[in-house]
Amino acid sequence: MVRVKVVVARLEDFPRDTRRLVRVSGREIGVFRVDDRFYAVRNRCPHQGGPLCAGRVFPRIVSDLPGDVRLETSRPPLVACPWHGWQYDMATGGSYAPGDPHVRSYRVSVESGSRVGPYVAETFPVYVEEEYVVLDA
Predict the structure, then answer these.
(1) Which CATH number covers residue 65?
(2) For residue 118, is it within any domain?
(3) How far is Cα 104 from Cα 25, in angstroms, rounded to an integer?
């Protein structure tokens, strides 16, 4: 598989606790900023194809003893599919329920503009032929 780098947004334009959807090679991928960490998963729940990235993001709930419940913020958060609530680790794509299928996760990094730029817009010649606007793509 060929890996490509896709610029999602400038860091200052991607506020904490928000998400963006990008399309890469025909696949929709959700990129999340949770506090100052970034995660990316495919926007398709492996259970029934739901829009996974529209789901709720939350920390893990753990318990060592009955009635002793706490949030585990040192581990990556989970995203829950809005259709049926299936939960996935945002860093690895692993299912919270053992044995369930995983979702594809992707590496996300913050890089200097000098490493990914300069940005070059793709251009196409456009001309008019007998009252038709034609795009050469």
Answers:
(1) 2.102.10.10
(2) no
(3) 14
The answer to whether the CB of 40 falls within 8 A of the CB of 29 is: yes
Question: Residue 93's closest CA among 79, 108, 75, 74?
Answer: 79
The secondary element (H helix, E strand) that includes residue 132 is strand 132-135
- Asked whether the beta carbons of 86 and 100 are under 8 A apart, the reply is yes
pTM: 0.79
For residue range 88-127, list pLDDT tens digits in order.
999 999 998 888 999 999 999 998 876 666 666 667 776 6
> pLDDT value at position 5?
81
Q: How far is it, in rounded angstroms, from Cα 42 to Cα 21? A: 9
